[in-house]
UniProtKB/TrEMBL annotation:
Record-linked PANTHER family: LEUCINE-SPECIFIC-BINDING PROTEIN, PERIPLASMIC BINDING PROTEIN OF ABC TRANSPORTER FOR NATURAL AMINO ACIDS
Matching Gene3D superfamilies: 3.40.50.2300
Record's keyword annotation contains Cell membrane: no
Protein name: ABC transporter substrate-binding protein
Family, per entry: Belongs to the leucine-binding protein family.
NCBIfam families to which the protein is assigned, alphabetical: PQQ_ABC_bind (TIGR03863)
Leucine-binding protein domain location: 53-356
Keywords, ordered alphabetically: Amino-acid transport, Signal, Transport
Domain of life: Bacteria
Organism of provenance: Paracoccus fontiphilus
SUPFAM superfamilies named among the record's database cross-references: Periplasmic binding protein-like I
Length: 391
C-alpha cells in the first residue's frame, strides 16, 4: 500500500507495507507538463505536486477500505514532457500497470490512448476537448475531467435562470480558444441564448506582468470592449490564459463577466463545503498543505473510481474492474450531492458542475428547471442522440 516514484517522478512517501496475501491494485499517474507562459496571476502558479496530491489522498482513501477488504493500492507518480510522454508510458505498461491517470493536453491524451490500445485503461484527468469525447473518442479512455460542453452548458443554464440571454463572446486567438468558443456557441443554441457579437483578442506575445502592465490593460480593455451591441454578460473563451482575468471591472459597459474569468464553471473549488466537502477539503489541506486545485480533484476521483470498483467487485483483475466501471451497476461518490456514473456512449463521467467566483461557489448545475428523461446530469454536455463517438 503506498505511493512510489517512477524514473521521472516526484517522489511520494511509501504509506505502508503491503499486507501479506492481499490483492494488489496498481495504478500510475502520468502528468505531462507542457512549456508555456506562466499564468497571469501568481496565485495561479501550479504547485509542484499538482494532481499528485489528489492522487495521494485517493490512495489513502482506497487503502482505508482496502485494509478491511484484503486489498492494497499502489500508485506511481510520473512527470513527463510531450516529447518524453510516450517513453514514460511504455515504462508504465512494461511494469504491468493497467490503470493510468493522465494529466495532459488534448493532443497528448489522444496520442497516449492510441499508444496504449487494449493494454490499459486511461483515466483522463485534465483534457477537456469535446473531440476527445466525440469523433476522436477511444474505448480505452474514461474522461474524469468535465468537457468544454459540460462546463459551457452548466454556466449557460445559470445565465438563462438569471435571465441574461444576450452574450458578448470574446475568444482568444489560439486553436484551443476556438474549441472552447465552439462549446459556448453550442450552449447558446441549446438553451436559447443569443451571442450578439464575437470578438477575438489576439495574442501578440507582449509582456503581461511588467511594472506598467496594469496601466496598459486599464487603457486597452475598455477600448477593446467598447461599441458592442447591447448585451447582458460578457462570456470569455480564453483556454490559453492570455486575457480573461483582466476583463472584470474593465469592460466599457458595466457588465458582469463569465466563462474563463468572473463566474467560472469548475469541477471543484477550494471553498466548496456542501455534501461533505468540508471534511474532504480539510483532509486534502492536511496532506498537501495548500488548497485543492481542479487537477487534484480530478486525479483523486479517477483513482477513487478504480478503488470503488475494486471494493465492490472484491477483485484485483483489471479486466473485471474495467467491465464493472463501464457497466450500469457502477457509481462513485464525489462530494457533489449525488452519485457519479460513466456515460456508456462516450465514457464521460457524469457530474454536477460548480459555478464559482474566486472565493466561493455561487451555484451548482444542472439547474432545477432543466429536466431529462434519464438523468438531469445529461443536460450537461453531449447527450446520447448528439454524440459523434463510435467505439
Amino acid at each position: 500500500m503506498g505511493l512510489l516514484a517512477g524514473a521521472a517522478a516526484l517522489a511520494g512517501p511509501v504509506m505502508a507495507e503491503a499486507q501479506p496475501g492481499a490483492q494488489q491494485i496498481r495504478a500510475a499517474v502520468l502528468r505531462v507538463d507542457s512549456p508555456g507562459l506562466p499564468p497571469i496571476s501568481r496565485l495561479d502558479l501550479p504547485p509542484e505536486d499538482l494532481g499528485f496530491a489528489g492522487a495521494r489522498l485517493a490512495t489513502q482513501d482506497n487503502d482505508t477500505t482496502g485494509r478491511f477488504m484484503g486489498q492494497d493500492f499502489e500508485t506511481v507518480e510520473i512527470t513527463a514532457t510531450p516529447e518524453t510522454a510516450a517513453a514514460e508510458m511504455d515504462k508504465i505498461l512494461e511494469g504491468g500497470t493497467q490503470f493510468v491517470v493522465v494529466l495532459a493536453d488534448d493532443a497528448t491524451t489522444l496520442a497516449l490512448a492510441d499508444q496504449v490500445g487494449e493494454r490499459a485503461m486511461l483515466l483522463n484527468a485534465r483534457a477537456r476537448g469535446d473531440a476527445l469525447r466525440g469523433a476522436d473518442c477511444r474505448a480505452n479512455t474514461i474522461h474524469v475531467a468535465p468537457s468544454h460542453a459540460m462546463l459551457a452548458d452548466a454556466l449557460a443554464q445559470f445565465l438563462m435562470w438569471k435571465n441574461w440571454p444576450e452574450w458578448l463572446l470574446v475568444k482568444g486567438s489560439h486553436p484551443e480558444d476556438e474549441n472552447l468558443a465552439a462549446a459556448w456557441r453550442r450552449a447558446a443554441a441549446k438553451f436559447g441564448a443569443t451571442i450578439v457579437e464575437e470578438r477575438v483578442f489576439a495574442d501578440t506575445g507582449g509582456a503581461r506582468a511588467t511594472d506598467s502592465g496594469h496601466v496598459q490593460v486599464q487603457a486597452q480593455m475598455p477600448v477593446f470592449t467598447q461599441r458592442a451591441p447591447d448585451y447582458d454578460i460578457l462570456v470569455a473563451a480564453d483556454e490559453s490564459d492570455i486575457f480573461a482575468p483582466y476583463l472584470p471591472y474593465l469592460t466599457w459597459d458595466p457588465r458582469p463577466v463569465a466563462g474563463s474569468a468572473g463566474l467560472v464553471p469548475r469541477s471543484w473549488h477550494p471553498a466548496m463545503e456542501a455534501w461533505g466537502g468540508m471534511q474532504y477539503q480539510n483532509r486534502f489541506e492536511k496532506l498537501a498543505n495548500r488548497p485543492i486545485r481542479e487537477e487534484d480533484y480530478q486525479a483523486w476521483l479517477a483513482l477513487r473510481i478504480v478503488g470503488e470498483a475494486a471494493t465492490r467487485t472484491q477483485s484485483a483483475d483489471p479486466a473485471e474492474l474495467r467491465e464493472f466501471i463501464l457497466s450500469d451497476q457502477f457509481d462513485v461518490a464525489g462530494f457533489k450531492g449525488q452519485k457519479l456514473t460513466v456515460r456508456d456512449w462516450d465514457h464521460q463521467v457524469r457530474q454536477p458542475i460548480l459555478l464559482t467566483t474566486g472565493v466561493l461557489t455561487t451555484s451548482v448545475s444542472p439547474q432545477d428547471q432543466y429536466l431529462h428523461q434519464t438523468s438531469a446530469l445529461d443536460t450537461l454536455g453531449i447527450d446520447r442522440p448528439e454524440t459523434e463517438c463510435s467505439f
